[in-house]
Specification:
There is one protein chain. The chain is of the alpha/beta class. The protein has a nine-stranded mixed β-sheet with strand order 3-4-5-2-1-6-7-11-12, with helices on both faces. A six-stranded parallel β-sheet has the order 15-14-13-16-17-18, sandwiched between helices. Helix 3 crosses helix 4, helix 10 runs parallel beside helix 11 and helix 13 crosses helix 17. It is globular. Bound molecules: adenosine-5'-diphosphate. The site of adenosine-5'-diphosphate has 17 residues, from helix 1, strand 13, strand 14 and helix 12.
Length: 478
């Protein structure tokens, strides 16, 4: 089965968030099922040097008016197709914005071209004879790929759309319809229209044959007004075609192998203690007896960082410690700097993005905090489970699906793997942090939870099986 996956980011080439982890992990996970997946993404300026050694496999003089080419290359065993269109992708800033935080004004065009190229590649095949059986689009950036494929009607290849975060919907002024080569008669509430504008995510939800999102709980949540962000109606209409599939964790995230920290497993947690000492040193913090928690996150409202800032003083008062790595909203960054100045011996702060450091943090810390207001799947709590770095999480989305709360019953049955907040507010986070301090002090209970967490299966095997089943089902309908 040959699948063309369309994404705006994928590890190991380019990453700003969890989408990249998933888009890069899926081809490997689906290999087990004999799925031959190629991953199409824009040739951003940082990726252009890779094109020197890549093979030109497809080109067109006009993709929504742009001349574009697709170059194939293999990286870490993954077959990538880089879409070359310098006018749209060869830019100095970030991949979505100018580096100062302002989104590119032509983002709709940048990703419409990606989506149209995907549809054309599916229709025409590549010059090495590769022809997709399925198109798999990710998020709003690729939402128009299933749309173009259906509306052009040149082939019957079915499509899947995966929602990684419904908060980003690809809104575009209705004036852009013509430029995007979309028919005016599809501009109505039952199709492309979202309250007077066009939404590329909604377009994908209407035209894809199957829809997935990244956890079963989130699949239920986004059908409600509270979480659906205006798309709950279309999702309810397509409820039968919507499946929640948990993300897995790639093997690169393992405590058992690393050159960067002392490797450990369930039996050698002593090495984790040494990593903890090293981590404290790296953040210039003194030895501490209370739990050492971490946060590795975008700093946004979604991630509940404001709740954290309010809850932390009481946690620090009880001798808890925290190392935080993240970047994002300037006001949150300032508030974190202020908090750090008040608690210099308990709070280590790094503003920035640093994957190697994040791994050392998971290897050395006792707990990872994820107090998100909503969380489609969440990856850091999964890394936490694997590393025996117990997750303290909000009761939402994939967090609710993956962490077993240390309530009395779960502690008695020895099944608990973390702490789940009862509500998503500052008081509930303070309660959860109190539980963290109390449970951490009970060394035997803590160790049992660590072991439960580390043996929990968080790899891709089951999820890959479900994706494969969805591909098979849509291939066999008709
Ligand atoms: P989202 O995609 O909403 O940001 P996820 O939890 O799904 O959240 O994925 C975030 C990914 O980005 C994880 O792999 C996490 O480790 C990583 N990450 C986030 N912020 C940083 C950072 N500042 N430095 C290194 N890695 C980060």
């Amino acid at each position: 089965m040959r699948v063309l996956s369309i994404t705006s980011e994928a590890i190991p080439l380019i990453k700003t968030g969890g989408l990249a982890d998933v888009a890069g992990a899926l081809p490997k996970a689906l290999n087990e099922h004999d799925v031959d997946m190629r991953v199409l993404l824009p040739a951003y300026n940082t990726l252009r040097p890779l094109m020197d050694k890549a093979n030109l496999l497809w080109k067109t003089k006009s993709c929504l008016g742009y001349e574009v080419r697709a170059f194939a290359l293999v990286k870490d065993g993954i077959q990538f197709l880089l879409l070359d269109c310098p006018a749209l992708y060869d830019r100095e800033g970030g991949i979505y914005n100018d580096g100062e935080g302002a989104d590119y004004v032509d983002n709709h065009m940048r990703f419409a071209v990606l989506s149209m190229a995907a549809a054309m590649i599916v229709e025409e095949g590549l010059s090495d004879g590769w022809q997709a059986d399925i198109l798999h689009a990710h998020d709003w950036q690729a939402g128009l790929a299933p749309t173009y494929l259906k509306l052009r009607g040149k082939c019957k290849v079915p499509s899947v759309l995966t929602i990684h975060n419904i908060a980003f919907q690809g809104w575009v002024s209705a004036d852009a319809l013509q430029q995007l080569d979309l028919p005016a008669e599809e501009f109505h509430a039952g199709s492309l229209e979202y309250w007077g504008q066009l939404s590329t995510l909604k377009a994908g939800l209407v035209f894809a044959d199957a829809i997935t999102t990244v956890s079963p709980t989130y699949a239920g949540e986004i059908k409600t007004p509270e979480f659906g962000m205006g798309l709950e109606g279309v999702l309810n209409n397509r409820s039968r075609d919507l499946t929640g599939i948990l993300n897995g964790v790639d093997d690169v995230w393992s405590p058992a192998k690393s050159d960067d920290f002392l490797p450990y497993d369930v039996k050698s947690l002593g090495n984790k203690a040494k990593n903890r000492t090293a981590l404290l040193k790296e953040f210039s913090l003194p030895k501490m007896d209370g739990p050492l928690a971490i946060v590795v996150s975008r700093l946004t409202d979604q991630k509940g960082i404001d709740l954290l800032i309010d809850a932390l003083p009481s946690y620090f008062a009880r001798r808890g410690g925290l190392c935080l790595l993240g970047s994002g909203a300037p006001d949150l960054e300032i508030a974190l700097h202020q908090l750090r100045a008040k608690f210099p011996d308990q709070f280590g702060l790094r503003i920035g993005y640093d994957e190697a450091l994040s791994k050392r943090m998971f290897a050395g810390a006792d707990a990872v905090l994820v107090p998100s207001r909503f969380e489609p799947c969440g990856l850091t709590q999964l890394y936490g489970l694997r590393f025996g770095t117990l997750p303290v999480v909000a009761n939402t989305g994939g967090l609710a699906d993956t962490v077993i709360n240390a309530n009395t019953a779960a502690l008695q049955k020895k099944t608990a793997t973390g702490i789940v907040m009862t509500r998503i507010d500052t008081a509930a986070l303070m309660e959860a942090l109190n539980s963290l301090i109390d449970i951490y002090a009970q060394k035997r209970v803590w160790k049992t939870m660590q072991k439960n967490a580390m043996i929990q299966v968080v790899d891709w095997s089951e999820s890959a099986r479900v994706y494969y089943k969805i591909y098979s089902d849509i291939l066999n309908t008709d």
